[in-house]
Amino acid sequence: MKSFIAFFSSVKLAIVLLIIITIASILGTLIPQHRSTAEYAARYGQLSTLLIRLEISKLYQAWWFISLLFLFSLNIVICTLTRLSPKLKRALAPSLEKEKKKLLSLKITANFSKNKDLETTAERIQKELELKRYKVKENRHENNIFLLGRKRMLGLFGSDIVHFGLLIIILGGIVSGLGGFRTDLTFNEGQTIPVPQADFKLRLDKFETEFYPNGAVRDWKSTLSVIEDGTKLFEKTIEVNHPLSYKGFVFYQSGYGYNWENPTLHLRIKKDTDPSYSMQVKMKVGETVKLEDENMDITAMRFVPDFIIGENNRVATRSMNPNNPAVLIGGHREGEAVFSAWAFAKYPDFGQMHSSQDHDLKFEFEDFEAAQYSGIQAARDPGVNFVWVGCGFLMFGLCIAFFWPPREIKLVLEESNGKTNIAAGGIATKNREDFQAEFENMIQSLRRSK
Amino acid sequence: MTESTLFLITFILYILAAFFYFAYLFSRKETLAGIGYKFAIVGLIMHSVALVLRTIESGHAPFTNMYESLSFLAWSAVMAYVIIEGKFKIRKAGPYFMLIVIGLMALASSPLMPKEATPLIPALQSYWLWLHVSVTLIGEAFFAIGFITSILYLVADSREKNRGTGKPGLTSEQFDAVSYKCIAVGFPLFTLGGLVFGMVWAYNAWGRYWSWDPKETWSLITWFVFALYLHTRIVMGWKGRRSAFIAVLGFLAALFTYFGVNYLLSGLHSYA
Lengths: 450, 272
Hints:
The complex is a heterodimer. Chain A has four domains: 2-90; 95-152 and 405-448, Kinase associated domain 1, KA1 (TATA-Binding Protein, 2-Layer Sandwich); 164-259 and 374-396, no CATH class; 260-371, no CATH class. Chain A contains ten helices and 20 strands. Chain A has helices spanning 2-8, 11-30, 37-44, 47-53, 63-92, 100-103, 118-131, 158-179, 384-403, 432-448, and strands at residues 108-114, 135-141, 144-151, 181-187, 192-194, 201-211, 217-228, 231-239, 244-246, 249-271, 278-284, 288-291, 296-304, 307-309, 315-317, 326-333, 336-344, 361-380, 407-416, 419-427. In chain A, the strands form five sheets. In chain A, strands 1-20-19-3-2 form a five-stranded antiparallel beta sheet, with helices on one face. In chain A, strands 4, 9, 10, 11 and 18 form a five-stranded antiparallel beta sheet that branches. Chain A is elongated. Chain B has two domains: 1-114; 124-272, no CATH class. In chain B, helix 1 (3-27) runs antiparallel to helix 2 (30-58), helix 5 packs antiparallel against helix 8 (241-264) and helix 6 (172-206) packs antiparallel against helix 7 (214-234). Chains A and B meet through helix 2, helix 8, strand 7, strand 10 and helix 9 of A and helix 6 and helix 7 of B.
């Protein structure tokens, strides 16, 4: 047990672990994470099996990386604790220096005498220290007075508070990892979805996309109602950066998309032979309109949002985004197919390939209307509050570690032949230059005073 | 006056500041360094006005694309330098530091950086944009001064070993101390802006405070390197060469977090 503590209380170990964790973290940014086995094989060939076996493909969740973090945390705990008790003793039960020689071996010292008696001098010094906001302790022994002036002793514990904060953050990370839950929900307007692992439901009342004048998206807004036991409790409009929180769950606006199940298509029909002819029709897939003058039934047979010729020369859609919307239009005369042709919203001159002698119709796919769905991420993260508390300690600790340096001045006063000899020593582990200036300033003022 | 004119005037003032600092370096006339310092201050004021104008024109924080963020970084760097030089008289760092600032300004004004203010994408519409980016970049500006003074330390140290002290200016030991002070200011700022504010914003916008996104990971790596600097220095008593070396590494990591990640690695922070 002793050797265990000795091993983990070493700062050298902390530094070695820090270096290893840093190098591992760098590796994780150079090798893409969470990709498919095939992608690793294509990228790294033979090496890919090794990468996957060593879990470098999911490095930050790998057992060995987590173990390193665990060892590092243990190291922080033991390093901090073993150094804490001498500091606590120094802060809470300070010893008043009784040996002049020891005092004068400090780095910041002064040694002088005043033509005053012991009591007056001690009082004068105490006043000077208190003027500079030092808290003074006094001890008497025979014809000596020992003084101890201290300030900002909390600064001693800056690093301990930082370490404590870090441990709470790591704890929060563990809680998030084990108890966290997140899932993506897609809502159509009006749809109600029970939230997984929760006892309430959400309904999307309204979803809208706002645009800037240049067409770029300004914001997505989803108005959500929280429904519990069949009754609506309240509603809130969420947008990116402004989620909804309820019962430990947080709901984020995470995406949007088109619902392609039943789009309305805007088509314009023209004739090659008659430039003045122009007719607009709005239809859904499967619907038919009759062109009386041509004795023709026009049917919207199929719609794809992102047209592509896929495998076996079959039409497919590359994505669910309207990158290349296309509609397949069929023409029938008395039940017999006359033609079928694709019309493309983005390429109006394309797709007249099937024109035939039997008709001179041209179709332009002008626009479409499709309902948009709202992508909402539901997350429950019980670790997050630990992280914020830890961050608070971390920042507080850093501030006092760097900007609240503790200072101690010890003095031994002894009377001889009506004079008082004063030996003073100062202790500051940080900002020693500033402290030295303050120390010398005080000594000067004491020497000059009458 | 428009923002771009003010930016140009600022650029010229910084170049003049660098010119006088270099003149000081070669002639060793203290007054020249003083003139350089004054040009840097006037430049800083012009730059501040330019940033305010940019904010009014675009209606959002002046660091949402590479041009804006470079300009803001240059502003933070000059501001940090003006403070540190005012306090510690590190004039010798002036010429090199202004060279870095000019480099940033030149990069910002290069044709590769689109300058028009674009409307903010939804993820960036948050007051955390102000807090996260400005505090992080100001922290990095202090790391930059730590970097220059560390290099000056290394140079001064090897010269003192060869010829002994005797030249005017700061001794290597003083450079070492200034370098530590810059990191002592930069580290809490970087922790607050880069890591803490970053986590809070990520939680508000993306629903998770940490995703191991390359930019996040590289911020953490930068933080680790400076943590290493502080621990080796305070606990193990490293000073001088080894300390300066880690400070240089830390700044390079910060630089990579700022630039490299955007161009070489892909992730969530694809805007700036």
